[in-house]
Structures are given as structure tokens and as C-alpha cells.
Amino acid sequence: MTSPASFSTTQSNSTSPTALIIGAGIAGIQAALDMADAGFEVYLVERSPSIGGRMAQLDKTFPTLDCSSCILTPKMVDVGRHPNIHLLTYSEVVQVNGQAGQFHVQIKKKPRYVDEDRCRGCGLCAEACRLQGHVPSDFDARVAKRSAIYVPFPQAVPMVYTVDPEHCIYLTRGVCGKTFKCKDACPEDAIDFDQTEQILEVDVGAILVATGFDVFDPRRKPELGYGLYPQVITSLEFERLASASGPTAGKIALNGKPPKRVVFIQCVGSRDTNLGIPYCSRVCCMAVTKQAHLAHDRLPGAEITVFYIDIRAFGKGFEEFYDRVRREGILYRRGNPSEVLQRGDHVVVRAEDTLLGELVEVEADLVVLAVGMRPRKDADQVGQMLNLTLDQDGFFQEEHPKVRTVESTIPGMFLAGCCQGPKDIPDTVAHAKAAASAAMILLTQTEKEMGAVNAAN
Amino acid sequence: MLQIESQPFALDHDLFACIQCGKCTGGCPMAIKTQLNPRVLIYRLLTAGNGYDLEKHEELWDCTTCGTCFSRCPKEVNPMETVIALRSVFVEKGRVHQNVKTALESTYRHGNPLTLPREDRGAWAKDLSVKLMSDGAEYLYYVGCSPSYDPKAQKTSRALVRILQRAGVDFGILGKEENCCASEVRRLGELGLFEMMAEDNQETLKRLGVGKMFTTSPHCFNTFSNDYPKNGVEVQHYTQVLANIVDNDELEFTSKLEKTVTYHDPCYLGKQNGIYDEPRAVLKSIPGIKLVEMDRSREKSLCCEGGGGRMWLEGTNPGERLAQTRIKEAIETGAEILATACPFCLLTLDEAVKLLNAEDKLQVMDIAELVDQAL
Amino acid sequence: MAFIPRVGVYICHCGINIAATVDVKAVAEFAAHLPGVVVSRDYTYMCSDPGQALIKDDIAELKLDRVVVASCSPLMHEPTFRATVAEVDLNPYCFEMANIREQCSWVHEDGMSTTQKAMQLVASAVAKAIILQPLQQRQAPVTPTALVIGGGIAGIHSALDIANAGFHVTIVERSPNLGGHVSQLHQTFPTLESTADLLNPLIDRVTHHPYVTVMTEAEVTEVTGYVGNFQVKVRQGDKTTEVPVGVIVVATGFEVFDAHLKPELGYGVYPEVITTADFEQLAAGEIWGNGREPERVVFIHCVGSRDQSVGNPYCSRVCCMISAKQARLVREHLPNSRVTVFYTDMRAYGKGSEEFYDSVRQKGVVYRRGNPSEIIRRGDLVVVMAEDTLTGEPVEVEADLVVLAVGMVPRSDTDVIAGLLKLARSSDGFFMEAHPKLRPVDTAMAGIFLAGCCQGPKDIPETIAQARAAAATVMIPLMRGQVQVEAAVASIQEELCAGCEQCVEVCAFAALQLHPVRGVMSVNPVLCQGCGACTSACPSGAISIKHFTFDQTMAQIDVLSDFGEPTIPTPKVEAEEVAI
Q1: For the residues of B161-187, what is the DSSP string, one character each?
Q2: What is the DSSP code (8-state) at residue C566?
Q3: Residue C73 class from Cβ within 10 Å (0-12 exposed, 13-18 middle, 19+ buried)?
Q4: Partner-chain contact B39 C377, CB within 8 Å
Q5: Above 0.90 for ipTM, yes or no?
Q6: Nearest-angstrom CA–CA distance, A30 and A134
Q7: Integer angstrom CA distances of residue B274 from B71, B267, B283, C261
Q8: Would you call B334 exposed, middle or buried from its count of C-beta atoms within 10 A (0-12, 13-18, 19+)?
Q9: Interface of C with B in 305-324 (CB under 8 A)
Q10: Which residue of B has its CA nearest to A311?
Q11: Looking at chain A, which residue has its C-alpha nearest residue B76?
Q12: 8 A C-beta contact, residue A76 and residue A85
């Protein structure tokens, strides 16, 4: 039933000043909304099936303990229905030519194999799928499993199901039993395996790169036991466990058992010249403080310890939040644990407590590694495609580290959010807005020049 | 074994607020010469899980309760109160130094820690025509144990009485009805006895209709103001009363006192209650006096090591006594007189002068004595 | 013809946020029987696309004219749902929310009484919804100019961006020069470039920009008006100018903590003790202490920050890096010097900062963990008394120069500016942003925005990002030329109004004025925030707030009291058993 891959190409020539934003996490979303509200046309391209990015993966945000999706979804909804935003999800930028004011961009719309206009987001296809409960969910940091047809999370924008081409039995093997279970279940007849990739070509005046970050893979520090002991997880995995919309509906438990002794370890994959990662990932001190609070809230009576080197609670309300969390009875011990070992049915964290000058062993049923922020795996390729320079840490290089952090080394291309370096949410929002400002100036000036040119002709 | 439940203790005393910055230990006058380390103490309690053995912690008795730690802690943790609470664990088991036992028992029985008879408490004022509070007066002058019984300290109370009479202040004393304020009792960790005595004392005040009072000792002042339950009585230290009198020009000096004087801020007056200016104002009002300041003045004043029950624990730690260091500092300023406003400071500093054989270089006197000399 | 309401009720589960403690199905079932209700549904996430689709489809098919959503706080999603109903041509003010999350499911234990409370809240919302009236949001025109208060690095960047976007900007700077605190710095971390090299070109650009008017030695003395239409009075010398603007950016900066407030550190007493701010001045020349080249230099962190004993519990964010930079400078200029930095937590969090911290230690600066307690004199040196918390011992470090890393505090005239612009302050005393995560430059006052350290301590890149963010945000109304005016504002029933002006006294927004001819009050709908103070103050009941009228509110109260004795559901704070 496969048809030969064919590209259909659509051309779009907008006459109003237009920008392209690559990446629709909070940075891309914020920049898009600001520019669209000001009257500019925006192409917002997101490679995953839904916008929302990392922020959608968080449970609560520090220091206010706002529910992350609660403060994010209104913006996501605004993006989805804004008349000036062309939202292209499950799409990727494949080529960029031209220069500031006149970029010519090729965008690849990957086939979802689901008709976006018909899908109502009911989810019956996912329930029926033969691989229900078998495919590790990236959104859930792989602590949960989904079907081969899925939405990443329940408040996805757009709320359209997508077939995962790497796992779908039909797409990988050519046949899926006698009938398509998904198609049979769909009341709107929205599933269409004849869909093909589409190429969209657009002309834009400015490009904002808001591609975000990945997290450190703690298997690079095998002495901490990640991947070896089930009790050792990353902070991102913890976030999904703690999340009300996550796989355990917010219950912090491993194999159904809530832990009694939780140990958090800071600076895993940051501040580590041994690993070639000398920089600080900026958010983990506060993220762990928040997670320690959540653990304390959800696991009454649990002993919670945070091993740290320096607590970087630098932002507005951060120190006060750190004060509050300590007063709840969470113990902060200064020392960077050297190893995690097995002991019976639990693990033991070995560290020097540098305030006592003594070696300590803390027993734990759950160890959470505060993994650092890393440039995205494909930052190299994106950089090459856009001709952007990477800095020595692999993030996109800004034009000047003090006074021009939203301008990249390529005129007309701007950087927004963590793709330029680790940031928390308020810093990301400010940075994205600043990038939008720079882009709007460029577009306004380009428009004036074009107007002058047109008038002269 | 002196086991305590460290987790509930830590939560009750807000120890989790501590960020282990070390400011307390860095300013603790006893940390330099003893094993006392407030920061480590707190940390051990925090990291002990749910049981901590206080057995080896004799250094708890080295704390003078000067309050420097609490006055500087950026997270408002109170290591001093933590030490007091831990002392009470020892006290409950009767594990205290014999001198302390004696002092506590005496306080209970005789109303003073000096094992002297209750009936003699008002004797120091016999010849001064001081009325009793029971005869009615605007102010209660709460004298305190040392100024009632100790000959050196009596000079302060007698001088003060003369000054107040000259200034026409209407005051009375309790005489033998006066009981120890129990400040040291509390600081030694005998919290039960403290509560009992505080209740008794407040009953006495109520019965006599006391509305305003002032004390000789900053310890009494502090405990009536801050430890006793609020009862509407206005409490002052005598330097505040004198400062007011001096400010209103209600005192006539008849002679000059041409002396260089330096002032030692008592911990319970200065650091703990912020009263730095009034004693100085009083000193400066004395004609002829030249006031010089030590480097360690006001907030940095060096504790004399008399508080926290240490009057009864002399010699229990090695190293030079803080009072001796203080005398040297005073002499360095070129002062002839070291003035202070606390009977404990007075006695400890005076003894230090003797130990250093410096009687010819420096005299320790209370402010009241100096004012009295110029009247 | 009498109006017959057709109400749709939607109970949101919000995942487990509501559904864990409230029986949402029972609430939906209950709501179905309320007067006026035509349809009642429950759904996992009402704010999601399918949730909204439920509402839109019902409005179209069932001809609903009022909608009630029982979910989270209106602060979260009221705008979302208003826009949803507007998409299918239902007036957005015919929509009402019942907060059964922040006010119910999140604050009570699971149980019958919590579900009952949710039902009561829904019934009350329905009763109000029935008598809601459609309202029209107005548009107000926007004067296409901006005012930037403060000409430091934040103000300069906001102004440049706004001007580059084509709008006239006036910068009002109270001192004779632009540049603010940055101009007092010698070099900046981590690049160690000269600040003058960074700042002067910027000052040059902004001063010569054709769209920027710079007023130095000038002060804003009065601000009246509202978003899009502010009238600002600026005094320069003895001359006062009126500047009409559409938007205002507040970039008034900060002050440095006064180290005299920590007397135990000896600032102002010992000449050897200076602050990091003083150091910057010295660094431009030669580093000295007490008239000679210092050999033993000690830096002390967190002076006036992270310190409840002086009422400043917050972190000042930049001092760790400033003192690192200065420590390194000392080692570079005075290779024979011994430099010690006393710290509690080393906050080198920014891009390049950790690496810079590494380089500073490599240059021979010794970091000791401990917050010094006091400084005393010893001969011709001073001694820093601290505990080294990593060795667990008290230490005395002699020094001939001590540098106190003083924090940032709000300007002493913050009250004045706050009064002029009706700005709120956060608990740390800096100006309060509209939302700490997602709205870092907005304030609660429409048309007024924040940039830079006046909102909280920041370093230079963060300040510039926020200043440009403020510029982006003001570009929106400037480019559109108009703003939406909230319709839920006060309205006067003229025949009841006696013109007594008691309402004026309680109005914090100067939104009420006595009409000179008619002798009755009139409301400025753009200034009015709909707070309701005037409504309670009016002795004749002549004022009501649209969308919160007396009848609408009484309908809510009547329904609640119809439920009889209130059952008090268990609050989560103390878990007590409650007999139902």
C-alpha cells in the first residue's frame, strides 16, 4: 500500500514582513506571540508533534510552584489560534538561503499519517493500537510507554494524533495484522497512510533560533549507577513522575513503592572539567530545591537529603524559596558524592560531608541526579544548516557575551532561549522577547527599505 | 548516654534554616579557645538522623550566652537558644557541675545564687532612706542579687540610689521580698525552675501594682523584658533612666571628674538589646570626663565571660579569660577607668585587673559610681 | 420577549488536580439539573483543543447563550475561554468561571464536603451567568511615542530598540549623564573588557539617534492618563515640560547596600575596609589600602544580602562574580599579594562564569568558605574574624585591604516612583512584575513596563535582555496603534448620583471625575481597574461594576445561602476529621 515517496512543494510569498521561528518551546512561543501581536507574520516551526517544549514536561515551576502546564497552556492556545502565526508542527527546517531581510527557507512537513482537519483528539486509535504500552515515550523521559500512534501529552497543541514511523508496525514492516486497528477505531476516518512529506518554501526577513536543549546522559558517569540500579533516576524523569499528567499521575513511586529515603545529587554533568563540561547549568540548584519540596509534599515522613557544592539561588524569590524548603526539614549536605553502590534492596550514596570533614554513607531508596543542560544532539547540524557558530560548549554563539546575546554571528538570525546557553524560564522569556525585539526592528527597517525601493521604482 | 530526638529538636528550633555559613562560630568569643563550635553543633544535630547522643558535649557549658551568634545570623537561627535547650537535657539528668548545682539550689531556697540569707537582701540600703515598694512609688528599682549582696557591686546600687534621690525620682525597692530574676537559671537550662520563679516574681509585681521598673543589671532587664510573659510592666535599664534625667537637665553636677574613661558594652545591654547610646550619653554628661572608645566597642564588644552561668564555672576552660583580654584592650586606649553598666561585667573585669596586677593602671567602675562621684 | 437563558456547564478534571478530590461526574450531574442549564459535561482538560471544541460545538448546535466552566482560577484561563466563545460569536462576557481548583480541590481533602463545595460554587456561577450581560471591549488609541525613565544601561537599550523600530522615545535621566551604575564600573566579568568601551558607543548611538530625546538632570513629577494616552510632566531645572506618550518603561535601577548598616565590619571606621563599589573607582587608578599597596587582601561576600538581620533575605545575584573579577584584578596588578575570598555559596551561574571562577582560583586567589563575623583592629592591620567551615575552625585573617561585596537594594526613592506610577513592590522592595515566570516585564498597570535592576538584581546581559524584552512588549501597542480596554469597569447610574465625590476618595486609579456641568460622576473606562472600591463607598448605590453588578453578585450569594448551613470542608493544613 505504499506509494513512491513524492514531494509536493508549496510556495508562499507573503508581502507583509515575516519571520521564521525555529522551535516552539516557551522561547519560540513567547517570541512568536510578541511578534504576531505586533502585527508581524510568523512561521513557527516545531519538529515534535506538539508545541510546548521542555516546559510542558515540568510539573511545578520554582519559586512560585505554579503548575507548569497551567501557565504554559494559555500561551500554547493563543499560538494555536493566532491569525498571524502559521504553526507548523511535526515539521523541520531543511534549508536556508539568502540574507538578512531576504531569507528563503525550505520547511519539511513530516507526514503524521493522520488528517489534521479530521482528527478530534479522542484517542481511540491509541487505545486500539497493537503496540499500546510498548513504545518508550520521549516526552515522559522514557519512564512511560505509549502506543505507536500518540499525542505527546494531553494538552498538546495541535491536539492531533501522530503515527510514530520508527515503531509503527505497518510503517516498519509493511503490514500490521489483518486490519489496521487504529483505522478501525477512528470514528472520523482520519488515519491516512498515504500521506507524504511536504515541502513548504517561504520567504522571511528574520530567523529566530529557539531550539532549546537536551540533558546530560548520566551513563557517562557510571559510578553513579544510572542505568544499573533502578533506584537511580534523572531529574527529568523525576519531573515526569511528579507530574499530574505523567505516567504515575503525580505519585512518586518506583514499581509502585513510594521511597522513604530520597537523595538528590547536584551538578551531574556540570562544573565537570573531567567530562569536558566546565560550565554551570544554572537551573539545577533551584530545580532540585523544588523537587525536594515536591518529594517532601508527596512522601510524608520521607528523609530527603540534597548533596550540593554551592547552592545557586540567585534569582528573584529564589533565596527565599530555598529558605522555605530547608525549613520544611529537607537536609542540605555539602559534598559532591563520589559513587552510588548497591546494598541489599536499596542503594548507598558515598560522599564526603565537607562541613564535617567526614566520609558519609547515606542510604536511599531513590537517588535523583540533577543532570545538566546540554546543547541538543543535532546542534551541529542545525548550526551547519544555518551557518551558525557554536561556542566552546556547543551552544550557539552569540555576537557578544555581554551586550549582544540575542544576535548570532549571522545578521538576521537571532538566538532565543537555552539554545544560546542554560537559562530558567523567566530568563528565557526575557531573552526570547529581546530576540523578538531585535527581529522586529530588522523587519521594520527592511520594510522601510523595500518601501523606499518600491517608491523609487 | 544522653540521647535526644534530633529531628524533632532540629525542627522545633528552626535549625533547618541554617545554611552553615559559619558567621556564628566566626564571632563566638569562646570558639577560639574551647571546643564550642555553634555551627558544627547545629550541623551534627541536623545530620544525625533521629537520635543524637550529647554525652561528649561538655563544651555546651562554655557558652557565655553573649548572643553574638544570634545577633549576626543571616537566617535568624538562634544557636544560643539551641545551646540552652541542650543544657536543659543535662540539667534534667542532674549532670551539672557542683558549683552550678549549689547556685541553682540556693536560688531556689534563698532567692539568690550566693547562698546568702533572704532577710539580708535589703541590708545594703539600710542607711539610705530608701522606701519599700509596698509603701507606693512610681518606679520599682529592681536591684538584683549581686548589687544587693556583693560589696563591690553594692557600690553601684548605693551610688544609683543617691543619684535618683538627687534627681527626685520616686522609686521604691522590694527589699527582702526581692527574688532572683532567674535569668541565669534559664541560661543554665533549668527551665522548670525559671518558669516557677518568673511566675512568682510576676505575682509580686502585680500585687504591688508595679507599672514601671528599672534594674541595675542588664541580665535582669533582659529577662524581665524578653523572657517573662508580657504583663504590661514597662521595664528599663537604669542607664536609660539616667540618660533621660541627663537629657532633661535634671541633675546638677557639683564637681569635675578629670579622668579618661573607656566604656565596655555589656552583652545583655548592647548586643542583645541595642542599648549603646544611653550609657555613653550619661558618661559624656559628667563634667571633665574624656570618653575614649576601644576598638571592640558596641556590636563588637568582647564578652567578659561572666554570663551564661559562667560565674559559677570559672576555671573550667583553659586559655586566657576573656575578661583579661578585655582589660588589656582597655589599658591600650590609655584610659584610667573602665566603666561598665553590668554587675557581672563589673565583678569579672575587676577580678581580671587583679589577676593581671594592673590595679595601678586601670580601675573598673560602674557608670553610676562615676556619676555619683561628680554630684 | 423574555430572555430564556441556555447555559452550558463544563466541569474540568484538570487531570487529577481537580478530579482527585472532587467527584467531577457528580458535579456535572448536579449541574445538569440547575435552572437554565441545557447541557452539562465533564472533561479531563477543558483548556485543551478538544475541551474547547466541546464548548464551541455545543454553542453552535445547542444554541447556548451562556457558558460556565468550572476549573482553575480565572487568572489562568479566563482569557482562553473568553476567546474560545468569541470564536463562535458568543460575547465573551457571557462566560463565567467557577474556581473549583485553587479555591476547592487544592485546598481541601478528598471527601463529600469538598464535592459539595464544588457543586455550590458551580450553582452560584450558573446563577450569575444567567443574568450576565454582553459587553463590548473598546479600543483606545495609542500615542505612538514612549517614555523611558532612567538612562542607565537598561534605559539606553530599551530606548534604542524602540527608536530603531521607528518610534520616538524620550529618556528622562535624573543625573547629568547617561550610563548609570555601569559607567562606574571599570571592567566587566567574564570578558574583562573595559566598561567604557562597551558603554560609550551605546551612549553615543542613543544620544545621536534621530528618534530619541534625552533629558538629563530631569525628573518625572507627574503621570496622569492611561495606557496609550499618558500625560507625563518632566521637570528640568525650573522648567516643566509635558510629554504625551503611549507607553512607559521604568528603568530606574538600584542603589548599593550601605555597609555602615553592618557596623561589626568596620566600614567607615577602618580606612582599610572598602566596598566593591569603592574598589571599582580605585581599580581605574591603582589599588591601594590605607595609603600603600596592599599585600593581604580579603573579600567578603553577601554583605547586606541573604541577611534577614538587615531585612534583606534575597540574593543580590551579581556580587559573587564582581568580587571574583576584582580578586583576579588584585592578583594581576599586585603579584605579591595574598588574596582571600570568604564566601558562603559561590554563585557563578552565568555563561562563562564558572570558567571565570576557575581562572580566578588558578590565578592564586584562595576561596575560603565562611561568612566573617566581624573585623577588629590589630596594630596597623585589620583582622577578619571568621570560621572556615571547611576546616571547622575559627580563623583570624590579617588584612591591609578588606573589600565588602555589598548587595543591591531598591532605590531610596522607590516609594516616590511607585506613587507616581501606581506600581506594586515585591516583598524584597523592588518593583513587582505581573508574573514572575511568564511576564517579567509587565506590571499590573497597563502600559507601564519594567526594565533592569529596578525589578530585581541582574547582571549586564540579563539587564539588556530584559530591557529589550520591555521594548518588544511596548512595540505591540505602538505598532498596533490601539489597545483593548477591559469592559468590566465601573458605571454610574446618573439619576442616583449626588456628586458627593466620596468615590473619588477611595479610587486608587484616579478614574472618577465630577462632570463640571451635569454635577454627576463620570468614569474613565481605561483608568478604571474594576476593583469595586467606589461601589462600596457610594452612599446612594449609584455605582456598579459591569460584569459584577449588585444583582449578579446577590444572585451568587442567594444561591450559596440557599444551601443552608455551610459545611466546612477540611482544609489541608490541619487534617482534622469533619463530621458531615
Answers
A1: HHHHHHHT--EEB-GGG-----HHHHH
A2: P
A3: middle
A4: no
A5: yes
A6: 35
A7: 10, 9, 17, 13
A8: exposed
A9: 306-309
A10: B19
A11: A323
A12: no
| B22 vs C306, C307, C387: nearest CB | C387
**Cell digits for C168?**
520616538
DSSP string, B312-336: GSTTSS-S--HHHHHHHHHHHTT-S
CB of C204 within 8 Å of any CB in chain A?
Answer: no
Peptide bond into A158 cis (omega under 30): yes
Q: Alpha helices, DSSP H only, in C209-309?
A: 276-284
Residue of C nearest to B35 (CA): C393
Q: Which residues of B touch C263 (CB under 8 A)?
A: 298-300
- The partner residue sitting opposite B43, judged by closest CB among A303, A328, A356, is A356
Residue type, C48: S
Query: Is C276 in contact with C323 (CB distance < 8 Å)?
Result: yes
**Which secondary-structure segment (H or E) carries C260?**
none
> What is the interface size between B and C, counted as CB pairs within 8 Å?
81
What is the C-alpha separation between B57 and B2, in angstroms, rounded? 10
Mind telling me how many Å the CA of A360 is from chain B's nearest CA?
Answer: 10
Nearest of A392, A402, A397, A419 to residue A273 by alpha carbon: A392
Q: Do A402 and C193 touch (CB under 8 A)?
A: yes
pLDDT bucket at B311, cuts 50 / 70 / 90: confident
Q: What is the 3-state secondary structure (H, E, C) of A377-389?
A: CCHHHHHHHHCCC
pLDDT for C490-523, tens place per residue? 999 999 999 999 999 999 888 999 998 889 999 9
CB within 8 Å: B17 and A327: yes
Residue-level pLDDT at C76:
83
pLDDT on residue A10: 46
Question: C-chain residues within 8 Å CB-CB of B299?
Answer: 263-264, 374
Whether B322 has its CB under 8 Å from any CB of chain C: the answer is: no
Q: Where are the alpha helices (DSSP H) in chain B?
A: 6-12, 23-27, 38-47, 68-72, 79-92, 98-110, 145-149, 151-167, 183-187, 191-207, 218-222, 238-247, 277-285, 322-332, 343-355, 367-374
CB pairs under 8 A between A and B: 34
Note the pLDDT of residue B18.
Answer: 94
Amino acid at B85: A
Nearest CA to A304 among A266, A280, A330? A330
Q: What cell numbers appear for C509 in the block?
A: 486609579
pLDDT band with cut points at 50, 70 and 90 for residue C288 = low
Write out the three cell numbers for A401: 557575551
Distances (CA, A) of A450 to A17, A20, A101: 10, 19, 10
Q: State the pairing for strand pair C393-399/C381-388.
A: antiparallel
Cell readout for C15 is: 487531570
Torsion of CA A142, A147, A152, A153, to 10 degrees: -100
Backbone phi, psi, residue A399, to 5°:
-70, -35
Check if the beta carbon of residue C501 is closer than 8 Å to that of residue C543.
Answer: no
Give dist(CA C321, CA C354) in Å, integer.
Answer: 9
Is-contact B367 B283, C-beta < 8 A? yes
What is the biggest distance separating any 2 CA atoms in chain A, rounded to whole angstroms? 83
Picking from A67, A215, A31, the residue whose alpha carbon sits closest to that of residue A155 is: A67
CB C127 within 8 A of CB C468: no
Single-letter residue type at A40: F
pTM of the model: 0.91
The burial class, CB within 10 Å (0-12 / 13-18 / 19+), for C242 is exposed
CA distance C379 to chain B (A): 11
Q: Do C49 and A317 count as a contact with CB atoms less than 8 A apart?
A: no
The answer to whether B32 contacts chain C (CB < 8 Å) is: yes
In this structure, what DSSP letter does residue A14 have?
Answer: -
Using the beta-carbon criterion (under 8 Å), do B296 and C376 form an inter-chain contact?
yes
- Model confidence at C275: pLDDT above 70: yes
